[in-house]
Amino acid sequence: MANEIKGRKLNLLIKSPEIKQKVHDLGKQITNDYQNKNLLIIGILKGSFIFLADLIRSIDINTEIDFIRISSYKNEMTPGNVELITDLGVPIKDRDVLLVEDLLDNGGTLNFIREKILSNQPASFKTCVLLNKKKTRQFDIRIDYIGFQIDDKFVVGYGTDFAEEGRNLPDIYVVE
Ligand code: IMP
Ligand code: MG
User: Domain 4-175 belongs to what topology?
Assistant: First the structure.
C-alpha cells in the first residue's frame, strides 16, 4: 500500500488487526447496551463509512442504519465550516439514536449534528467515535463509545482521508 500521499510521508499508527479487534469489542458493548431497544445508527459521511460497515457486522441486534453527510474539512488539513450536504432520510423522534463518527478533532462536526438530532426528540442519544484526539475542546462533548485515544496529529486511512485520498488504506497512519 501507498506510503505517501501528495508527497507527505505516512507513518503507521494502528494496524488493521488491532482496529478489527477494537471494532468487534465496540460492537459487543453496543449489543449489550441496546437489548430490546429501537436502535437507529446514524453514520456521518464520508469518514465513517468503513468503520460503520465493520461495526454493524459486530452488532447482534436488529438495527436500522441511516447517514448524514456533512463537509467540514474543505481540503487537506485545514478545518472549514460545518456544512450539511445530505440530511437524514428517516424520522428520529422516539428512536434510540447512536451517532457514529470516524474521528473527533475539535468537536464542531459532532456538536452540529448532535444539536440537530436532539432538536428532533429521540428517545435516547449516544455517540461512538473510532478515534478521539487528545486535546482541549471548545465544545464539551461526551462520547459514549471510543475506539482509540490518539495524539493530536493528522491521520489517514480506514475511511479517513487526506485531501480525499487514503480512505482505502486498511491501516491508520499519521501524515507527517
Ligand atoms: P471536528 O469537527 O474538528 O471534530 O472534525 C472532525 C471531522 O474532521 C471528522 O469528520 C473527520 O472526518 C475530519 N478530521 C478531523 N481530523 C482529521 C484527521 O486527522 N484526518 C482526517 N480527517 C480528520
Ligand atoms: Mg468526517
Answer: Rossmann fold (3.40.50)
Determine if ligand 1 sits within 6 Å of the CB of residue 47.
yes
User: pLDDT, tens digit, for every residue of 152-168?
Assistant: 999 999 999 999 999 99
Ligand with an atom nearest the CA of residue 103:
1
For the record, the C-alpha cell of 144 comes out as 459514549
Rounded CA-CA distance 131/42 in Å is: 17
Confidence of residue 80 (pLDDT cuts 50, 70, 90): low
Strand positions, DSSP E, the chain: 4-5, 8-14, 39-45, 64-71, 83-86, 96-104, 124-133, 145-150, 155-156, 172-175
Q: How far apart are CA 172 and CA 152, in angstroms?
A: 14
pTM for this predicted structure: 0.93
Query: Is residue 73 lining ligand 1, measured as CB closer than 6 Å?
Result: yes
- What is the Cα–Cα distance from 38 to 24, expressed in whole angstroms? 21
Is the Cβ–Cβ distance between 52 and 65 less than 8 Å? yes
Q: What share of the chain is helix, strand, coil (3-state, %, to 5)?
A: 20, 35, 40
